[in-house]
């Protein structure tokens, strides 16, 4: 047979011909390429671009331990206070941490000052009771002579003097806790002696600040009350009532404004900055600018918390004093009354003064961080950066 028209065996290519194309395959659309889940283009974070050799692509996390923040994140809190603008929870959390870390220079100082101040009425009452035979039963009776009346007035007067001394003593405690707070912000602890030594050179200025603010408040109240009395005497009833109410509410608003803008944050700058009394008042006014309602809200909330908890802490002593004086006889009743009230004051001051002073000092640091970048200086003092 002739070779023309014959076909080579399967799998062989005729001589001189090119490679045989593969047999045709049925057409199907290509399978979809799996894309990572995420937002469509144009939304969210940009897609990672090309990276240089040895570097992670832009938009991807840098090499390290996944799920952990960079090491510098911990540097923003070298102590008890996060060195950034603080929220209300941050302020209260920092105050509790400062008290827990420095119990001696916070709670200890408040207890020591209050105990010394309350020892005065106890001693005076004990002496008067021994010599004049005073008792609460005699106070309620109508048959008491001038000596007994003078003794009672002396006993209660000594309690008033003790309260005044306690107020001045707690003013120094506030100054000490201000230094404790500033040290806690950079991770340091101050003992009771170190906190007291830190106030050296500023103590008389602190007393001057207290006297100035007290005198200014009394003069302001005297002016407002005097004007109200003047209106009541010289004007008709309707006009006097209207102007009196207006002046009364206006005077109260002015008192609150001065308390927030000038009084509330005056002690921390006086203690921590090289300035005097009037410069400290100016610093308080500057730091609370455009922060009135925030400062006012935190201050009022703190006052409500401390008064509530302080009242709860002193209730057992008040109840115990009432029961003891009711069952005691003779001169022991007045002595028990004074002692139980003094113990209640000591226990309440152990919480109220450290917490209030710490919150005030933390608010001062917070305002400086917000307005002056004070966190940079604190980080440098802490040795970070």
Describe the structure.
By secondary structure, this protein is mostly helical. The chain is built from 12 helices and no strands. The longest helix has 41 residues, at 332-372. The termini are far apart. Residues 1-65 are annotated as: Disordered. The chain crosses the membrane at residues 107-132, 152-185, 206-233, 239-260, 272-292, 298-322, 334-355. This is Glycerophosphoryl diester phosphodiesterase membrane domain-containing protein.
Q: Which stretches are poorly predicted, pLDDT < 50 over at least 5 residues? A: 1-8, 23-29, 31-57, 68-75
**Rg from Cα:** 38 Å
Strand content: under 5%
Based on Cα principal axes, name the global outline: globular
Average pLDDT works out at: 81
Work out the number of β strands: 0
Distance between the termini: 98 Å
Structural class: mainly alpha
Oligomerization: single chain
Tally the helices: what do you get? 12
H/E element sequence: HHHHHHHHHHHH
Helical proportion? 55-70%
The largest sheet, given as strand count, sense and whether it forms a barrel, is:
none
Number of domains as seen in the coordinates = 1
Organism: Nocardioides marmoriginsengisoli
Biased composition (Pro residues): 7-65
Protein name: Glycerophosphoryl diester phosphodiesterase membrane domain-containing protein
Keywords: Membrane, Transmembrane, Transmembrane helix
């Amino acid at each position: 047979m002739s070779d023309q028209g014959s076909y080579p065996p399967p799998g062989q290519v005729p001589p001189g011909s090119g490679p045989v194309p593969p047999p045709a395959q049925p057409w199907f659309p290509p399978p979809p390429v799996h894309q990572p889940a995420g937002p469509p283009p144009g939304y969210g974070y940009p897609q990672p671009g090309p990276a240089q050799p040895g570097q992670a692509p832009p938009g991807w996390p840098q090499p390290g331990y996944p799920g952990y923040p960079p090491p510098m994140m911990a540097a923003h809190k070298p102590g008890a206070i996060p060195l950034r603008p603080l929220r209300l929870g941050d302020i209260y959390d920092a105050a509790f941490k400062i008290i827990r870390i420095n119990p001696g220079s916070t709670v200890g100082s408040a207890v020591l000052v209050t105990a010394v101040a309350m020892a005065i009425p106890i001693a005076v009452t004990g002496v008067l009771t021994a010599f004049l035979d005073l008792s609460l039963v005699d106070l309620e009776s109508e048959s008491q002579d001038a000596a007994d009346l003078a003794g009672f007035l002396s006993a209660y007067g000594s309690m008033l003097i003790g309260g005044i001394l306690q107020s001045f003593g707690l003013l120094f405690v506030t100054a000490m806790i201000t230094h404790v707070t500033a040290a806690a912000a950079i991770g340091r602890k101050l003992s009771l002696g170190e906190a007291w030594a830190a106030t050296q050179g500023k103590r008389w200025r602190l007393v001057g600040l207290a006297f100035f603010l007290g005198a200014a408040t009394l003069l302001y109240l005297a002016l407002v009350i005097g004007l109200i009395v003047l209106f009541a005497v010289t004007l008709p009833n309707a006009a006097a009532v209207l102007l009196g109410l207006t002046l009364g509410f206006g005077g109260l608003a002015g008192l609150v404004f001065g308390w927030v803008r000038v009084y509330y944050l005056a002690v921390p700058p006086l203690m921590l900055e090289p300035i005097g009394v009037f410069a400290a008042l100016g610093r308080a006014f500057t730091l609370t600018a455009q922060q009135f309602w925030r400062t006012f809200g935190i201050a009022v909330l703190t006052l409500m918390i401390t008064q509530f908890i302080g009242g709860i802490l002193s209730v057992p002593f008040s109840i115990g004093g009432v029961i003891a004086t009711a069952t005691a006889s003779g001169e022991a009743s007045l002595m028990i009354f004074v002692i139980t009230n003094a113990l209640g004051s000591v226990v309440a001051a152990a919480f109220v003064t450290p917490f209030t002073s710490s919150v005030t000092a933390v608010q001062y640091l917070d305002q400086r961080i917000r307005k002056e970048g004070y966190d940079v200086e604190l980080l440098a003092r802490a040795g970070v950066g």
